Amino acid sequence: MDATSTQSRGAVWLTQLTDNAALQAGYVASVLVADADLAGRRTRYIAVVPDPENRFPRARNGEVGLVEGWQLARAVQEVIDADQYSDNKTPIVAVIDVASQAYGRREEGYGIHLALAAAAGAYASARLAGHAVIGLIVGKAMSGAFLAHGYQANRLIAIDDPEVMVHAMGKASAARITLRSVEALEAFAAKIPPMAYDINSYASLGLLWKCLTLEQPDKPSAIEVATVRQSLQAALKNIEVDPLRDLSSRLGAENRQASAKVREMLRAQWKDEA
Fold it and tell me: Does the global pTM surpass 0.90?
């Protein structure tokens, strides 16, 4: 692992949680894949990290680009294929610290939508095949990058920290798109949780299974690593006693009433037309 990678939270947490396990060979520098123990089970850990030498300039700061999307899909699909005939499905932990999807002409021209869809599809396939998939949000979880890396997890765990945020796009980009100032958007976010960037507002939407408070998320102590590992173990246990492999556990939060209403109306319309 190079010096730059070790500076990102994704790299730090993957290294700590796997006890510095050897990385799987054959992956690009921006995609870290390691197999290590979790609750006595061999588990695959995956993270996307910055790579200043990335041949795609738009994907040098931890973004999920063309190569990262396909490599994430490969890392997950390898586990699915290896356990195809086994009842003991390997758990997967997506360590999430992704700044954005990569935006650029090359990305659009070569089909970044396909690369990211492949990654999201692989995670969903793993979940539906019986693999316990856990998303651990340690930094940013932005836009299509989060959809491709971790959003399909059975359970999402996040660190409660100002540097941890989940959103469709960054504040500056959102301000440009909506023709508002960043300050105006922040004022809206204070009243409307889906527009907010902080992790507690995101949690109020019912999407997180657990939120953890740590003192040093950039350089965690042994106790803090143990706390996160225990939470991952608890999530694994919770998933494995859940007969459902869908994402219904995220529904029902008070701040998702409008979403629930839309789902209800869509179901009714679908039945009427059938």
Answer: yes
